[in-house]
Amino acid sequence: MEKKDLDWASLGFGYVQTEQRYVSNFKDGKWDEGGLTTDANVVLNECAGVLQYAQTCFEGLKAYTTEDGRIVTFRPDLNAERMYNTAMRLEMPPFPKDKFVEAVKAVVKANAAYVPPYGSGATLYLRPYMFGSNPVIGVKPATEYQFRIFCTPVGPYFKGGAKPLTLCVSDFDRAAPHGTGNIKAGLNYAMSLHPIVEAHKAGYAENMYLDAATRTKVEETGGANFLFVTKDGKVVTPKSDSILPSITRRSLMIVAREYLGLEAEEREIHFDEVKDFAECGLCGTAAVISPVGKIVDHGKEICFPSGMDEMGPITKKLYETLTGIQMGRINPPEGWIVEID
Ligand code: PLP
Ligand code: COI
Fold this sequence. Notes:
Layout: E1 21-27, E2 30-31, E3 35-37, H1 49-53, E4 56-58, E5 61-65, E6 71-74, H2 76-89, H3 97-110, E7 123-132, E8 145-154, E9 165-169, H4 186-190, H5 193-201, E10 206-208, E11 225-229, E12 235-238, H6 247-259, E13 264-267, E14 279-284, E15 288-297, E16 300-303, H7 313-326, E17 337-340
């Protein structure tokens, strides 16, 4: 199979239209057979539930070319499960988990020419999503839905790749206690657009959100979970019911313990403790592990000892082991790597 003639190494995190996408419709209480289409456009009634009351959710995962030339995805079953949970919270009909994984495989296979080559620094990003499609004017769930998956080749989420980022502590809250912070609903991202535009204007790469109830505990950023490393080499990550349960973060905790022999703990993290950590990183599918060099809290700077030039040493080990597993250089734990045949 001939790869597309793209300048893989120069790709940013953007949309490149590929050839095929998956579509399935929910109507009369059931999902249809579903299948691939070349039509990248969605045509909706003006009153569609998604357009009125934002009944939409999504997922994000990647396909990789391994060192020995296979095409693989990373833990797609966990994306299927998280989307199932998200749908339940939003009163949407959950998409069957086994069909989700099959649809992921079908989209990757159909767009194999767009899976960036090994070593290019790029990957194929998959975006499963679902929305209420029939007219809804009273506030209630739609009765018809569309589930789709498209894919696009991407480079690093943050410009500058592995260069440490500077974040600011946001004055806005991301998610309320008992709200929707732990699901991947479009509404969580709509509300983050104003804070991120403001943060970018002020020269920051992302916002650090604190817990809405007390504003004393670290939550996450708009698109990634936090990982910290203590001065005695322990990996710690915030525990909260109002952050997204990142698949990357859950995987890294296992990598830390089982591959690197480190202590790794998920616990509440008070903002006051952050100044005492040795390293900080953002983790997620898009972010992979992006190092953080500095966090600014209303003019007060927290500078991590790892500095502004390079990833901290433990962050680097985590990064290398995780990407080594994803790219087939390191043996994966059972079930983590799903090969596209
Ligand atoms: N937190 C938020 C708010 C996100 O949007 C994402 C991205 O999916 C993550 C965390 C990281 O999750 P994952 O590692 O499953 O991609
Ligand atoms: C992902 O990492 O897949 C996300 O959905 C995060 C988003 C900010 C791009």
